[in-house]
Amino acid sequence: MRFWLIFKILLHPLRWAQDRIDAWVMARVKRQPGPIAITRNRVYILPTRFGYFFALMLLVMLLGAMNYSNSMAFLLTFLLAGIALVCMHHTHANLVSVQLRAGNCEPVFAGETAHFELRIDNPSPTPRYSLAASWPKLEEHAVPGDVAARGSGLFMLSLPAGHRGWLEGRVFSVSTEYPLGLFHAWTWAELDMRCLVFPKPAAHGGEPPAAGGHGGLASSDRSGQDEFAGLRSYRRGDTPRSIHWKSLPKLQHPMVKQFAETLEQDLWLDWSALAALEVEARLSQLTRWVLDAEAARRNYGLRLPGTLIPPGRGDAHRFACLKALALYDADAG
Predict the structure, then answer these.
(1) How confident is the model at residue 30 (pLDDT cuts 50, 70, 90)?
(2) What are the TM regions of this chain, as residue ranges (predicted)?
(3) How far is Cα 197 from Cα 300, in angstroms, rounded to an integer?
(4) Which of 120, 303, 147 is nearest to 211 (CA)?
(5) Are residues 190 and 108 in the same domain?
(6) pLDDT tens-digit profile of 252-309?
(7) 60 found inside a domain
(8) Range of 292's domain?
(9) First and final CA of the chain: distance in angstroms?
């Protein structure tokens, strides 16, 4: 192990040093609820690859100007060096004084990608150009965006959601290379943001067993407009629309159509009905039944060890059931 570390240091000394510096800095980044104001002492800046090449070019130009004692070559070299210094100032200032705060994070299912919203506020009267937010080591995949003067910009940070439960956001960077790409300025931050990950739904197929649900259809005693139940004699107050006119010539007195309303019993999704499955498989199957029951617009309830959600339907009810499944603790249950 020590030999491999020495080999890594000798092979990539700059990368090793950068990794150690990043680890040292990120270990000191504290998780905060936000907003986080980016001050000057929180902004780091280094030349980019193009910046290093530009500096090497200036060195060659300076040596050439000294060798030939050419005043115009000196002028061009110092002019380009001055532009680089001004560029460094603008790159650093483009990141200073912005404020970071967490946005929304919509729940996802396990196996999908969670998208954390990051809002960057610019309280200054100067626009901020080419800002980018990313997780560590993924800066090259970040999509830069601009933030208007005294405005706000929305940036997305994506993480794969491998397991159900709460997916915590981690340390991220906000960076810029504006205006010329000679310097890379960045800051580290960690906001108090997390995403709820629902269990991965099981494959389609299979209804909740009768023992675990008591689901089904029943006819009520009250009058309705769903199922024809027969004819009865006309009573005062019946509407002409309900009279069965075809039977009038034969019976010589009006008859009224009567209907029985078909009611759907509450569907119970019961943890105990899936005793043959493992914990995660049970949660996946219950998640599938919740989605199917909601799509069929049925009233459904959920029974878990230590948790009982009464029957209902709608987005709020669906979310409550899926959240209970996502946060289910087998050890506590």
Answers:
(1) confident
(2) 50-66
(3) 21
(4) 303
(5) yes
(6) 677 777 665 544 577 899 898 888 889 999 999 999 999 999 988 889 999 999 889 9
(7) yes
(8) 199-216+268-333
(9) 43
